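Subject: for your reference before the review

Hello V.,

The reviewers asked for a structural picture of the protein, and I figured it would be easier to keep everything in one thread rather than splitting it across files. Below is the amino acid sequence we used in the manuscript, unchanged from the supplementary table.
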Amino acid sequence: MSTKIQVEWRRRQVFELSSKGLSQVEIARKLQIHESTISRDIDCLKEQSKENIRKYVEERLPEEYEKCLVGLTAIQREAWS
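And here is what came back from the structure prediction:
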């Protein structure tokens, strides 16, 4: 297995275990990996999450907002009819 695939697998595991409420120490013990590696993985996952949110806000949210406005305008017209 390539290093990149191993890192991606490990980070998925870290994310899953973290979402279940395990501490970094518990995750490190469970995966048998040094705590500093878990800490770096969590930092990387946080950065990826920030980037995903930024992309969503810049690329998807404006369109969704416009769709909502169009829908509300249609509902308002229907209500007044």
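For the response letter, the relevant points are probably these. The two ends are 64 Å apart (CA to CA). The first helix runs from residue 3 to 19.

Happy to draft the paragraph if you're swamped.

O.
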